[in-house]
What we know:
The protein folds into 2 domains: 2-90, no CATH class; 93-135, no CATH class. The chain has 8 helices and no strands. The protein has helices spanning 2-8, 15-31, 34-37, 42-64, 74-81, 86-102, 109-112, 122-135. The radius of gyration is 19 Å and the shape is elongated.
Amino acid sequence: MLGFIMRNGRMFNDIMALKTLYYGFVVSKLEYGSIVWSPLYLSHQLQLERVQRKFLKYISFKIDGSYPERGIDYSSLLHRHGLSSLSDRRGFQCSKFMLKLITNKIDCPYKYYGLCKLSCPETCITLCGEWRRFIW
Length: 136
């Protein structure tokens, strides 16, 4: 899908339009169901991040007229274009889901039948307070 956007977006000069297409067609596919299937192995995480890195290089090309040099730091590309890494986004979504589950904003019948046991140490309570600040 990223190749489709890059091929058909050659004539686009508006970076926001390209970012909108990227989020609509690519990121939505990469993050769909990420709470369930989030990759554990670093190699799988890097495969997903490689897609975003390729898009960031393409956006840099559209802005500057030349691709960034080889070996450019991924975090500097993220910072330049105001994006966060896909792994950070997955972690945030997982934390947001857990907070909603703990505060009963999500109906989970397994929690009531004892099939889903959640244990939370005392330090987690203060973390939940910190999470609320970022989510709401």
